[in-house]
Amino acid sequence: MNTKSKQKGKANRRARRIRTVIIVVVLVAAILTGLVLYAQRVVAENFSSASDSIESAEVTVGSISTTVSGSGTLASEGVEDVTFPSAVTLDTIYVEEGDTVSEGDLLASVDSASVLSALAAAQAQLDALDEEIEEAAEDEVDEEVTTALDGRVKYIYAEEDDDVATVMYENGALLLLSLDGYMAVDVDAGSLAAGDSVTVTDSDGTEYDGTVDTVASTATVLIDDDGPVYGDTVTVTDADGNTVGTGTLYIHEELKITGYAGTVEDVEVDVDDEVDAGDTLLTLTDTSYSANYDALLKERAEVEETLQELIGIYKQGAVYATLSGVVESISYSTDSATSSNAFSATTTSTTASTDSDETTLLSISPDETMTVSLSVDETDILSLEEGQEAEITIDSIGTDTYTGTVTEIDTTATSSGGVTQYTVTVTLDKTDSMLSGMSASVTITIEGVDNALLLPEDAVTQTSATAYVYTSYDETTGELGDMVEVTVGLSNGSYIEITDGLSEGDTVYYSASSSDSSDFSSMFGNMGGDMDFSSMGDMDFSSRGNDTSGFSGGNAGGGMPG
Question: What pTM does this model have?
Answer without folding.
Answer: 0.46
